[in-house]
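In the previous lecture we treated proteins in isolation. Real proteins rarely work alone, and many bind small molecules. This record shows how such a complex is specified: first the sequence, then the SMILES for pyridoxal-5'-phosphate.
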Amino acid sequence: MVPPVPSAAAPTLQVPGATGADGDGGPTPPDRPFEAEVDPSSPNRNLAPISASLDSRDRLMVGDCLLSDLARDYGTPLYVLDEATLRATCRAYRQALEDSYPGPSLALYASKANSSLAITALVASEGLGLDAVSAGELLTALEGGMPPDRIVLHGNNKSLQELELAVCHGVTVVVDNWLDLELLSGIAPAHPGPVRLMLRFTPGIECHTHEYIRTGHLDSKFGFDPDQLESVLRHLAGCSWAWLDGLHAHIGSQIFELQPHRDLAGVMADALVLARSLGHRCSDLNVGGGLGIRYVSSDDPPSIQQWVADVATAVASACTERGLTLPRLLCEPGRSLVATAGVTLYSVGSRKTIPGLRTYVAIDGGMSDNPRPITYKSLYTAVLADRPTAPATEPITLAGKHCESGDVLLTGLALPATTTGDVVAVFATGAYNASMGSNYNRIPRPATVLVQNGVADVVQKREEPADLLRYDVLPDRLSALI
Ligand SMILES: *Cc1c(COP(=O)(O)O)cnc(C)c1O
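The predicted 3D structure, ligand included, written as tokens:
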């Protein structure tokens, strides 16, 4: 059964402790308190999950579960995933595609953002497809119940094993380079029927959060260079074992602008003209992912509805102008599909005050469960789970527990006075946290609980330190020494 998505979130959440983008320049005054505008129709525009609410004592709840209870019952660090947010996002993509694209469409979840059986099952139950980039993600998708004909396999260096797994399950392979084709032509004879392919090319549009460039060529490791497109399409026309289902391009991530995807539509429609002129069916056009989300109050991404409408309109008109039968429109949201559903809970531990400089408050996780700040200087927003609305009086730096000075999750954070044992909730951690995590310092990975309607289900168990020894081998000649 699919639980209903709440139509509006309960009491509006006041979230006082925003991050300041202060880099490393010492303490900054607390950011001005702000009100998280809850927009349940487009979760990527919220800081907190759409089910976030306050109990009668103003403590933070998600999915009707008190966060500090979850921390107590399941331990910290803990990834909390809000089912209502995840389902609302899936529905927003589906509905927007239906509303604004005149042809068929399908949203594929880019599972590298957060890959698990539970997320796969949820996304599959909402009628979406999935993109995988490795045997591990592919296996997770298949075991999680995603129909193989709604899965695509990406990757700029797929192994023979990964290609065989995809082909034998009837998963569409997104061909990235000539080696893919060489390996596939070896696999194909053992496979009944044609192998389903898409072709990834570099569209000459590249987008980072606040800039984008358009060139004929791009320095990217992914996909065929535009120069190569015609020769690979001609080559494929002679491969009787292959069906070219469509074309693919992906231009970047955490994108707030709409123009790059509008430009992409034209570039892709041109490529579609070429492909069809060479006899390819090419019924699918996959514009990739990239829509951004709100991590801090100053972020203002477009809504899912606006992004989809822009992409859909641009693709439809670019195709119509060129006299093309409308392709099925595919897109591949990753971050914007799962990030806002996630909250990470930590317990406050030690504290170090450097007079006149800053106060470090240390939590029991850090770069191993959220490598984004140390990798990309990413910003986050955090509150105390049991006092989210209390005045944020103390500027602090939220430090991780790893042996790296750079292991700092948030700088310029303002919180109410904290004591050891307080639970800190960091928002928008559903994407590229668990999936990019590590066991650095031999720290076990956190558990994930899925919450809805007051029920919490463990969907990923917490690792124990002993689990980390499972693949260590002590040769006899070394154990003989001890
Ligand atoms: C990473 C990636 C995505 C998803 O990107 P988001 O920014 O997370 O939406 C989609 N398609 C491809 C090919 C990707 O590499």
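Summary for your notes: The radius of gyration is 24 Å. The longest strand covers residues 342-354.
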